[in-house]
Write a structure and sequence with these properties.
By secondary structure, the chain is an alpha+beta fold. It is built from 5 helices and 3 strands; from the N terminus they run ααβαααββ. The protein is elongated, with a radius of gyration of 18 Å.
């Protein structure tokens, strides 16, 4: 994601306005590929560090940017029932950015859908091309 003009390097001018340089631009396919690749890497590292496998995971809560990204991440967790791969945030609210996995976890906890001792894998991708993953165990 870039905003080509409007900052100190390329201040606003008649030329930058006429060239539509004050609108966010995104190379969607590249962002998609990068997000999927990096979240998969984060999952691998997270599971390895936690000494777990995909089969130990009860819930997958990926970043809720769009369904295509969620589905690409979910392929690795074919053993999970589809309702255990949480997608509801993107359906209910759209892309809520960094808050998507927290909203998802809140919904699941409030609705008491997560059972005690179940392991929940969170994976995220966001602003500044940052990514990560974490495993939580429900108490």
């Amino acid at each position: 994601l870039i905003l080509p003009a409007g900052g100190s390097k390329h201040p606003a001018s008649l030329k930058t306005l006429q060239e539509n340089k004050h609108y966010l631009q995104m190379q969607g396919k590249e962002v998609y590929k990068h997000a999927v690749r990096r979240m998969k890497e984060a999952i691998e590292i997270c599971l390895k560090e936690a000494k777990l496998t995909e089969k130990d995971i009860s819930w997958l809560i990926p970043h809720q940017a769009n369904e295509r990204i969620i589905d690409a991440i979910a392929k690795r967790f074919a053993h999970l029932d589809k309702e255990k791969i949480f997608k509801e945030v993107v359906y209910k609210f759209g892309n809520t950015s960094a808050s998507s996995v927290v909203l998802a976890l809140d919904i699941l906890k409030k609705e008491k859908r997560i059972k005690p001792k179940e392991k929940i894998l969170l994976t995220v991708f966001g602003a500044g091309f940052t990514w990560g993953a974490a495993v939580l165990e429900n108490n």
